Amino acid sequence: MLIKLKERYRYSFIVLKEMVRTDFKLRYQGSFLGIAWSVLKPLMLFCVMYVVFVKFLKFTDGTPTFPLVLLLGISLWNFFAEATNMGLTAIVGRGDILRKIHFPNYIIVVSATVGALISLAINMCVVLVFCIFNQVHFTWNVLWLPLNFIEFYALALGTALLLAALNVYFRDMQHIWEVLMQVFFYATPIIYPLSLVTEKTNNPIFAKIMLLSPPAQIIQDIRHNLIAPDTTPTVWKEISNWGIRLIPVALTFFILWLGIHIFRKYSQKFAEVL
Prior knowledge:
The chain is an all-alpha fold and about 270 residues long. The protein has helices at about 1-25, 35-55, 65-95, 95-100, 105-135, 145-170, 175-185, 195-200, 205-210, 215-225, 235-240, 240-245, 245-265, 270-274. It has one domain (about 15-274). It is globular. The mean pLDDT is about 85.
């Protein structure tokens, strides 16, 4: 029994590894700059956001680290957007393989999210170079970063599994998710500091409510632990009640559980529907 189980997971790992490798190669096939686009896209977006929102509209907290905080936020959001968008279309896009080859369906979605994770790792190297160049003082808070990234991947994977399953039966999900992602982007403190929300509303409760969103909680935690522990508000600093503090973490792992549950429930009929 144990030998069969071991062989099954070994086979699944081999399939996953090959899918990730193939997807990553195909993504930049025929492109002159190739994998460099993984770095250039967030950098170009950062430049536009910095000029428009920081220089012209003055969406800044006034600290010298805010440009780095902005770059980090854009890189993190790009990971979440890429993982969920690629995961959403993964099953439908691989329908021909599902009909021909027998292997665990979830590997297709995991492969899409791992590909996004590789892009994030490349972007984080760029962020670290900028941090070192700008003499950011790293603290012991960086030890929390592995937990932050595990939580972020759990959120992305759970969302991707849920969307992938729904998209097989409701093809409008792709368009609905595009609209929702636009809403979530501007409802999350990525291009503006959270302090600006309090300043404009004259009420700290709105900023605290925004921190209860899982993406906002995770992005703010990573910014706090990596770049600006003194100036980055987090759910752990702004909210004193532990029950409320844990809401975004609980939501993250509920979404992961829900994604796995829905995917398992409907995955057996994917090949028939496709």
